[in-house]
Every structure is written in structure tokens, then in C-alpha cells.
Design a protein that fits this description.
- This is Aminotransferase.
- It is an enzyme of class 2 (transferase).
- Its EC number is 2.6.1.-.
- This protein folds into 2 domains: 5-45 and 286-389, Aspartate Aminotransferase, domain 1 (Alpha-Beta Complex), CATH 3.90.1150; 64-283, Type I PLP-dependent aspartate aminotransferase-like (Major domain) (Aspartate Aminotransferase, domain 2).
- Helix content is 41%, strand content 15%.
- The chain contains 14 helices and 12 strands.
- It has helices at residues 5-8, 19-29, 48-59, 72-86, 101-112, 129-134, 155-161, 183-196, 234-237, 252-263, 271-281, 284-306, 335-346, 372-391; strands spanning 35-37, 95-98, 118-123, 139-144, 165-171, 199-203, 228-233, 246-249, 314-316, 323-327, 348-352, 363-367.
- Strands 2-8-7-6-5-3-4 form a 7-stranded mixed β-sheet, with helices on both faces.
- Helix 3 crosses helix 11 and helix 4 packs parallel to helix 11 (271-281).
- The longest helix has 23 residues, at 284-306.
Length: 395
Amino acid sequence: MRLAKRVSDMTGGGPDGWAIYYQARAMAEAGQPVTNLTIGEHDVRTDPAILDAMHRSARAGNTGYTFGAGKPALRAAVAERVELRTGVRTGPENVIITPGGQAGLFASHMVLCDAGDRALFIDPYYATYPGTIRATGAEAVPVPTRSADAFQPTAEVLDAHLPGARTLLINTPNNPTGVVWSRPTLERVADAVTRHGTWLISDEVYDTQIWEGEHLSPRALPGMAERTVVIGSMSKSHAMTGSRLGWVVAPAEVVTAITTLATSTTYGVAPFIQDAALFALQQGGAFESAIAEPFRRRRDIAMRVLGGPNPGLRLIPASGAMYLMLDIRATGLSGNAFAERLLAEEAIAVMPGESFGAAAAGHLRVAMTIEDNAFEDALVRIAAFAGRVVQEPAL
């Protein structure tokens, strides 16, 4: 029996990029100690108070269908949060609740792209981006950036790629690089998409994890609210990754279209999870800052340990998110080769930059997701390993 090509085509014919993670998991399951710095998930799980709110709601009978764009109280709370943080007038009609940010990304491309359209995404990129685009039948086109430019797109590269493009997907604070895009970069993007008539999709799930500078949503720039779709999530801001609660903020007609799509796909998010999310949002900014604080500490540890000269290794300044990007091209190894040897010789698992696109080749992504002392020890060992590789005789 023949299967539809749309799913097999989502990978573009290549691997999914998670080979090191799978190896590390297999080693751990076999009883071998592994320091796992691959996955962007909190080492401290969802706060018990949020789980209690979820339990109370479920026990109260909130276990039925949730048709439409989400519970009105939660949509209103998300709208209020977004307006407070960005200064852009946002109402419940601009919000749809989705089963996580990933579902929001998928739905946004589904309602904005047709088969044969060109849909752009910035390289480096989170591993699911191209597949999310290809699922619509659109052509997924990477827009390259350079390590020397802090992985932020130049005006020249934007103008070279944007003509005829239906959408451009950006992500700041950025996964995998840890870079927070500057205001000039976002103004450059806004100018380019406006001139070329392109929709902007902005993945802002790390907006509470800012270590330097500030987060600027491009939707807040002049004239951008009507052409910008923003993806948000409770996963990173409230350590609720498994609860699968996200949202899309967009012009009302986009929200209506995504709601139509949801009727034939997800049927919404469980009401007790929505109630827990509402409770979590009501805890305010101090609660969100407490969730982010471990990653701020670990970023500071990384700056102290790796911020100076290190043979074979250069730390890309991390301004946000829960990741570090290390440039290891001076070792002469690819990111894949370095990560494979690091796992085999040091039992430390990191993600090779090649998993996140050609622009990140020769780099590593390090997730700051283990206890502080163990994290510092791992960074010291990674730096020492890079130094040993540099000193190896050329073959």
C-alpha cells in the first residue's frame, strides 16, 4: 500500500538531526553515566501549585471538549499579557490557544502558505522549522546568517531571498544560538517584509529568558501588527513543556482561519490544562523570572568559564534562551565529529550545529539544563577537550 508523500517529504530526505541525543539516551538506558546537554527542557519541573490548579479543574469536571479558539478567560489573559509586554493593542479576537507552540507554528504556516509557495526561515533554525513548512506543500528556503554577525540577517541577504516569498519565520531569543536580535536587525526585517509583501511569523517562546538587552517583538514596530503572526507558549516561561499549551497572536482573520483548521485537527486543548495555564499566568512576572533564573546563573557561569581565550573554542555571546553556541571550527572538526568524539571520550552529549542548519556547521549547541556545579564541570571538560583536539598532530 502506498503512503502519502507529504510526511516523508517533511524531512527533506535527510536525517532528523537528533542522532547524538538518541545515542546519549541509549547509553543512559544501558546504565552508563552521561552528562546530557542536548534537550531544551527545564531540570526543575512544573511548579506544584500549577499542577494543583490543573488537578482541581479536572476534578471539578473540566474534562470535556473545547471547541473554537480557546477558553475566553485564557484568551483574554494572553491578550492582556501580550499588550502589557509589547504596548500593542491586543484583544481576545487576536488570540487562539494551541496545543503548544509547535502546533501554533504548524497552523500558522498552514493558513498562510499554499503548495508551491516559497516560505523562508532563518538559518540556524530549530530542527522542526523546515518540516513544518514542507508539510504545507510550500518550498522551505533557508536564509543564511553568519557567526561573525551573531547569526543575525543582513539587509543584503534578506533582499536576496524575500522577493516572491509568502512568509518569513524568525526566532528571538534564538534557539539554537542564544542570541537576542537587536532593534536594528528587527527594523531591517520589518522594512524588508513590508517592501516585499511578506508575512512575518515570529517565534517568541523564549521571551522571558533575556540575559542582556531587551526582547522586542517585531509586531510592536510601526505598521507590523497587521502582517505579523506571533507564536507563544507556556513551555519555557512556566516550565510546562509536557502540558502542550501555546498560542498564536495575529490579525483576527488569521485567528479565524486557524480556528477553522483546529476544528478538523486538534479540537483544542484540554480545558483543565487551559485553567492551569490561566492560573500560571496570574502568578505574574516574578514567577516567570524565578523560572528563568537558573538559566541566567548558568549563562553567567558560561561567560566566566568560556568567555576568555580557549584554544579551539569560542563562545558566541549568549543574550537569552537556555542555550549556548560554541564555535569549534578552530579544532578542524565538524560539529558532528566533535560531538561524536565528545560523547565517546567524555560522556558529554551536546548537539552539533549541523543539526540546526548549514550556517551553524562547525558549532555546538549546549543546553544549560543541568544543575549548576555539574554544568560548570561539563564546560571545563568541553574546553579541555577542544584544547586537546587542537594539539593533535595533523594526519
